[in-house]
Amino acid sequence: RERSRGAQRKRTRAERAARLEEREREASERERGNGETQGRIRDLALKLREKDDDMSRERKELEERLAKCDECEGQLTSWQEQLDSLAQILAARERDLDSQGVRSPR
Q: Are 104 and 98 in contact (CB under 8 A)?
């Protein structure tokens, strides 16, 4: 009887040790999985930060290009106004010459 109790205790200890070992293995796998997940999260955060930096740089470049376009548009408008003014002056001058009987070469 004592031998069977001793054997039973050994089995119980072995079972406990096996369960403990299994739990430790599972915990280790979870930690490794968490580490991999954390690594993926860090990689994703880095990629997002890089993408944000790229987009910010591109946005700044676009704003600069739009400002340059506005500047060019303003210059073109000014030139158009000058051309319109010159066209009016030339048309008036041509009318004056026509009224004086001087023909303009065409």
A: yes
